[in-house]
Amino acid sequence: MKPLPVNVTNRSGPRTQSRHQTDGNARKCRGSRCLVLLTVGLALICVLLLVFIILQHITITAERDLTKSYKNTVEEFNQTINSLQDNYTDLMIKNDQLQNNFNSLSQKKLELESRVDQLNSEQGDLWGPDDMFVSNEEKSWSDSRQYCRDRGADLVIINTEEKQRHISSLVKERVWIGLSDGQQEGKMKWVNSPLKRGFWLKGEPNDSGGNEDCIELMPSNPVLNNWNDHSCSVKKKAICEK
Q1: CATH of 128-241 given 3.40.50.11540, 3.10.100.10, 3.30.70.1060, 2.40.128.110
Q2: pTM for the full predicted model
Q3: Which residues form a coiled coil (predicted)?
Q4: What is the pLDDT of residues 152-201, one digit of tens each?
Q5: Domain boundaries along the sequence of the chain
């Protein structure tokens, strides 16, 4: 008995068709996966781009805010500097004003002190009802007389023993009196009257050196013998009398 012929076409047809379907399904599957992966990749890229854009926006915003803050800080700093400069200028002006006021007050103080000294000098040391005073400045005989005259007085005249004792007891240093022989050598004369009596130191007047024309009272010597002729240019205090 002959074997039956094998139908190759029938056997291979369904297998080949099944394989083709499987390959098609595989290709479809791979295509879907690729599409999904591509979609996911695109989505990831979009997310990354979005994150990058957000970060860039944040960075730009931060830089802009920082720049604005820096500008505000610089402006405030400049305003502070200008304010300090104005305050410094005001202080310098006030300092100059205070210095000027101080100088003015110092000048007035000096003027007042000078005036006080002048008043003290004018007043001198008054001795009661005699209207006599000792000058506060040492001057030559002629300048001392002018000093007395400027104050409504003149150099003192001593024409009695009582007055000689009184004056000798009051002064402690050598002083000019109103007696001289400047107008005529050897002829003693008071400032406004002739000499009547003298209270000379022993041996005086001697016109030593030919240049002793003015008379001083020397209280360290005996009260009735303490007149001495001396150079008129020597500076010493004087007794003034109104």
Answers
A1: 3.10.100.10
A2: 0.50
A3: 67-122
A4: 999 999 999 999 999 999 899 999 999 999 888 889 999 989 999 999 99
A5: 29-123, 128-241
